[in-house]
Design a protein that fits this description.
This is NAD(P)-dependent oxidoreductase. It holds the Pfam family Epimerase. The protein is an alpha/beta fold. Helices cover 35% and strands 17% of the residues. It has a domain of 197 residues: Rossmann fold (3-Layer(aba) Sandwich), CATH 3.40.50. It is built from nine helices and 13 strands. A seven-stranded parallel beta sheet has the order 3-2-1-4-5-7-11, sandwiched between helices. A two-stranded parallel sheet has the order 6-13. The protein has a two-stranded parallel ribbon with strand order 8-10. Helix 5 packs across helix 9 and helix 7 crosses helix 9. The longest helix is centred in the middle third of the chain and has 20 residues. The C terminus is likely disordered.
């Protein structure tokens, strides 16, 4: 299958690209810069690199048409960092997604797959299924929800198959330094006691390899609509912090309780993944202890120094 990807140099996108290539798919990746400077450098010889800007369709339309994809896998997004979650620029992602979906359809794609987020659900607590209320509290969540609906609507209008995968709390080797797991690893490795809330929350930790495999399963099966992508095994946050501490620097005491909870703190968020499991046969395979150990080792080997934050 010929697959056109956006966000292919991002954390999840790079892993999905690797799995696609290893499965024998022919992939073209939309990039703004040199592929050798991205996570995709090891795959450069096996990819079609298309120079262009997600937010300027004319920059990629001709190359997309020439590539003639069978499927689109859209994980590109501008504004993924926490400080950008309420930036008005989030809304630009909605239009960019719609124009991309239309351009991919015009170029021959029969399957459109987009990457959404748990942020689309807002402040829900407990085990969350795809039919739960969607009441996002950030512009990031609002934009992800609207972009997903736009992609599904464009596909329906053109008689295409479409999937929107709502991903829950990724982690793993290759993650940018600003997120929770890398920041804790760095603090513990430096002998610092990180300032934390009491950490009584119940959280999802979804390994990036599992999430990427879920996207491939959705591509390979006749799935349609919205699907949660998560670990299916929520973990007390305090236990997760202590596990990372024990793997990194057992003598360092976490600073539990030094930071108050936010007024909008979600105390229990768990992905109901029964729908994707039933539709595709996919199951998460990476246990948390092994995934954390791999991630700690990756950062110890200097991998984290190679990752910079950028528009995906």
């Amino acid at each position: 299958m010929r697959v056109f990807l956006t966000g292919g140099s991002g954390f999840l996108g790079a892993e999905a690209t690797r799995l696609l290539v290893e499965a024998g798919h022919e992939c073209a990746v939309l990039l703004r810069g040199d592929i050798e400077a991205t996570r995709l450098a090891p795959l450069a010889a096996r990819l079609h690199a298309i120079r262009g800007d997600l937010f300027a369709p004319e920059s990629y339309r001709e190359a997309l048409t020439n590539f003639a994809p069978d499927a689109l896998l859209h994980s590109g997004w501008r504004g993924v960092a926490g400080a950008e979650r309420n930036d008005l620029g989030q809304l630009d992602n909605i239009v960019a997604t719609g124009r991309l979906a239309a351009a991919a359809a015009d170029a021959g794609a029969r399957v459109l797959i987009g990457v959404g987020s748990q942020a689309e659900y807002g402040l829900l607590s407990g085990r969350v299924a795809e039919d739960a209320a969607t009441e996002p509290t950030t512009l990031y969540g609002v934009a992800k929800l609207a972009a997903g609906r736009a992609l599904l609507a464009i596909a329906a209008e053109r008689g295409l198959r479409a999937v929107w995968g709502r991903v829950f709390s990724l982690y793993g080797p290759g993650e940018a330094r600003l997120w929770l797991v890398p920041s804790l690893i760095r603090a513990f490795a430096a002998g610092r006691s990180p300032d934390l809330t009491p950490c009584e929350q119940i959280w999802e930790f979804t390994h990036v390899c599992d999430a990427a495999a879920a996207l491939l399963a959705l591509l390979d099966h006749e799935a349609h609509g919205v699907f949660n992508i998560g670990s299916g095994e929520p973990t007390p946050l305090r236990d997760a912090v202590l596990l990372l501490r024990d793997l990194t620097a057992p003598g360092v005491a976490p600073g539990f309780g030094r930071t108050p909870y936010r007024p909008d703190q979600i105390m229990h968020l768990e992905a109901d993944i029964s729908r994707i499991c039933a539709a595709t046969g996919w199951r998460p395979r990476e246990p948390l202890a092994r995934g954390f150990a791999e991630t700690v080792e990756w950062f110890r080997s200097g991998g984290g120094e190679k990752i910079v934050n950028h528009v995906l």
